[in-house]
Amino acid sequence: MTIKFGVIGAGRIGKVHSATIAANPKAKLAYIADAMPQAANDLAAKYGAKVASVEEIMKAKDVDAVLIGSPTGFHAEQIQMASNNGKAIMCEKPVSLKVSTIEETLKVVEKNKSTLMIGFNRRFDPNFAEAEKRIRRGDVGAIEIVTVISRDPNPPPAQYVAGSGGIFADMMIHDFDMARFLMGEDFVVVNALGSALVDKAIGEAGDVDTAAVQMQTASGRIAVITNSRRATYGYDQRFEVHGSKGMIHAKNVHNSTVEVLSGAGYVADPIQNFFLERYGQAYANELNTFIAAVESGNRDPKPNGHDGLQAQKLAEAATESWKTGKPVKVS
Amino acid sequence: MTIKFGVIGAGRIGKVHSATIAANPKAKLAYIADAMPQAANDLAAKYGAKVASVEEIMKAKDVDAVLIGSPTGFHAEQIQMASNNGKAIMCEKPVSLKVSTIEETLKVVEKNKSTLMIGFNRRFDPNFAEAEKRIRRGDVGAIEIVTVISRDPNPPPAQYVAGSGGIFADMMIHDFDMARFLMGEDFVVVNALGSALVDKAIGEAGDVDTAAVQMQTASGRIAVITNSRRATYGYDQRFEVHGSKGMIHAKNVHNSTVEVLSGAGYVADPIQNFFLERYGQAYANELNTFIAAVESGNRDPKPNGHDGLQAQKLAEAATESWKTGKPVKVS
Amino acid sequence: MTIKFGVIGAGRIGKVHSATIAANPKAKLAYIADAMPQAANDLAAKYGAKVASVEEIMKAKDVDAVLIGSPTGFHAEQIQMASNNGKAIMCEKPVSLKVSTIEETLKVVEKNKSTLMIGFNRRFDPNFAEAEKRIRRGDVGAIEIVTVISRDPNPPPAQYVAGSGGIFADMMIHDFDMARFLMGEDFVVVNALGSALVDKAIGEAGDVDTAAVQMQTASGRIAVITNSRRATYGYDQRFEVHGSKGMIHAKNVHNSTVEVLSGAGYVADPIQNFFLERYGQAYANELNTFIAAVESGNRDPKPNGHDGLQAQKLAEAATESWKTGKPVKVS
Amino acid sequence: MTIKFGVIGAGRIGKVHSATIAANPKAKLAYIADAMPQAANDLAAKYGAKVASVEEIMKAKDVDAVLIGSPTGFHAEQIQMASNNGKAIMCEKPVSLKVSTIEETLKVVEKNKSTLMIGFNRRFDPNFAEAEKRIRRGDVGAIEIVTVISRDPNPPPAQYVAGSGGIFADMMIHDFDMARFLMGEDFVVVNALGSALVDKAIGEAGDVDTAAVQMQTASGRIAVITNSRRATYGYDQRFEVHGSKGMIHAKNVHNSTVEVLSGAGYVADPIQNFFLERYGQAYANELNTFIAAVESGNRDPKPNGHDGLQAQKLAEAATESWKTGKPVKVS
Known about the structure:
The structure is a homotetramer. Chain A is α/β, with parallel strands linked by helices. Chain A has 13 helices and 15 strands. In chain A, the strands form 3 sheets. The first copy, chain A, has a 7-stranded mixed β-sheet with strand order 12-11-7-10-9-8-15. Chains in contact: A-B, A-C, A-D, B-C, B-D, C-D. Chains B and D meet through helix 6, strand 12 and strand 13 of B and helix 6, strand 12 and strand 13 of D.
């Protein structure tokens, strides 16, 4: 069985998913849509796909699933459209910057019993997935503290930041999902701090580039997240989970296993710097999970719409906490 | 020149300091005082010192310096007494559980121009001191995020906890000092979370055993501290400092450099489990710093009374934040 | 340009290369030959290739290159046949267990000016290639000692061993090539030791499963190789190169970056256990190098026939040294 | 009980042992002898010991044990003298550069039933001792391959080398003992290679600075040793032991646990550079072992005279193998 995909959005993330679909023997990249015709044409030509409008893709008989990689503002509407047209849906995070819009969207998906998966790709990183498997198996006992560290190699331009929804919705959203994924329990309170220390222009655009959040679950477990928009040593993606039986963590992935010893010390290679390299395997595994859900008729692959909703609630709460300087409760 | 010490307190920490003084060629352990005569006698006999009352030590001509390792409730009074008697003073943390008492005490010390050093021993750990030296030298550029992780091997008995001042004053006080030491700038706001996850009896005694704090400086820099009263893998003492030029961290100290490879994986030795082993060299270096200050007439060795005061203010603020669920400002 | 391949041999290594060819966008898997019709049929069916005899492949107009993965005894003859038919040739190591046969074969290749590459796949491992690049660049200065460590996860059956040419020709041949690759200078003397410590049946079959070789170049540089046919912790593939400016090494590749901390210590994942997983990327890079040579008309991609010859000479010398207990000179 | 020591030799190693004795609560540094009066006076003054001639120390009633740290040429004679005078003896390696002289000396020791321990200090390094303990306990199963790597930070002056007995007797002697210590079985054949690659003057002085040895036991187990007189990254002291159940190794000791991450990669501190720092604890543990033997009347603490003899036999065999280019049998 081959799943025929229509990809909405031919930008950076659309290209990633198109390449992943094209390389997957169980998938066929059938259509590409993008508001910029040139972008859609180029991507379609590269993989032998057809160019179509969003509406055409949604209605196409030879499309089983849509992959939504359009700008965030279109996600909710396109999910609903796809759902109403009987397509399976894989949508990039976030579903919407407004929690209420996500809730409406999930109602449509629920009503149509559509398959919907949200693109929190990091859950599918082989190292992170392996750690989570062991946590669920009980290897570290009852979880007490989850620490998530996420640092981008370089800050985005300040103008990007202005339209991004802010660091908590744009960047830390992944870490909120990771914290939930690892903890296995929802958070009820969020405290946030933030500063523009990396680039003053980010501060002037109304956002921060350095942020910390601490959260607590109803049973008292604690999660701590720190973010920076810049790390000179690469794309720093780590977590550690401390429990009653021990601690588990996933280390960063280095460019190679080579190490040079000299008077300067023991020098190991920098870590992978680029999200496509770091998470290439994660994107492939994510797609496989989605395809398996579509094949088997599983309408609720994880991370699902609820996961998308909860992560956005945390991002919204963190943003409010940062702005007001007060803890914010989350339902 | 030999510095003659009177040690107040023959309990666990008094024994540590007595052994360190006895092994230091520039120091002489002259007197021991303790409310329990047997404890004082045993310790004095071990090192050839004399037993005396606190008052006698304070007034003894052949005492240059007092090392205060009595219960916390006596620290402030004994510092004042030693100061009024012209002794140099090394006092275990905290000076007092009440900030106002510390402030009064420091006024006495100031008036008498006494040498006072506070026992934040971790600053003298060779690994931590080396990291701090490089941070001050600018190796990681402008500091943005300081993360301090501190986990004890085993929780104390709940009855100890009851009289300890709580985890923030009893355990995290070291981490508040470490965060200040590393950051080099004072914190203005403190957010705390806590839970009794390790031992319910600690919760019933009104304290927590798992805690997180995030703090911010006036210039926006962020520090995150997490504490647990139990770690199955040993005495976990780490930090990392992220700055504009890179990141620096100090790893844990393992029991040995031995590693065993088998089907179970690559198994490195557990980390050192006992504070005396982990910080043995730190106690020796701390004493040398104090002795050097006394010898040279430096009345303000670091960590000084102000450092003790600031750490206590943070502990008090964290305790209040944990109890009220609100951020607390610190002056 | 697409290079059309005929693959000779549908056994374990033929399957590896067939999969790699099928996945390479610049290559087409046109034909498969194998003495066992079923094996050839299965493999051809999997990738949409045709089954043919060796002779047919050698003469086929629509074959640009042959990949020889047949049993060692056929390699030399098939290289000659392919060369005489104007095909580019990639041949698994070793060209022959007899040095004189290799020399005859290389004369044919030379006369026909054929492109010939020998399958020392480890040179193409990204970690090893990166280390070698830095060595050649001079990062460790003048090389003094090369150490190569190679341990298989599990010993082969004793009956395999009997027909394998012995550990030095069958297993250590890769390490001889690696030592030459890293050293960049040929060896003139070989000392070997060996024992059957892992499986007595291997000893009874006239071979050893544990071996050490030390070699020296004309300029006095030293290489040390150790081999074991069994390592409980995985497929151990390492080297270190010590030079006048420092040391460089490539560490093993772990299954994941996950580490678990508990009373048992710090437990990192075992290393990759299976040659296909460990060297999957190396096989892909090897094929790309061969394809680039064919495309560009480079008749001498490395590792070339001379490399195959020199590695075999070292294997032969080591076998003789092991048997006689004496050092053996190599030309 | 306090053991009263006479130290013969106030040079580099005599100073090390004198400091270790002075710091040991169970030992008293009573006498120092040295052919250079100034050296003896300075060292004696530092620790409040008396200066005496070798003969006076040997006969002194208030000397329980002599520590022989004189030039190698005097060791055998002084051991015999001390033994004949009823002293316990700790002697630096090697007992003699001549195997026959060692054998004569051991006969005297045997006749007098003297306590004799040889100064192979590395056996007492806490990391190495821990590894050996686990090997003996069976943690890695039956031993198959022992690899010892030893590299000095800097080469000695060529004139030192001239009188040193050569690299195999002067430097690799420690590694021969370590290989025996780890293997637990004697070696029967030795193959050596060597070159002067670090300093041509060492070659002109008739020695080498880069050397490799492989050895085999009667049961077929293999040991490989490599030595270099220079390592830019510090004093490299490692081994690994591969057995039927797994592998154990002891890693180098870094200056600190600090690591800096930047665009240059992950930079860990260099390893300890100086033998006194690297083996300070080993010297203290060695002395404790000797003292315990004297106290308990154990006349055969390890490493004993036989260990000294066997290591020297291996050094002699390696020297011959290097010179003749042939393997040398050892009894």
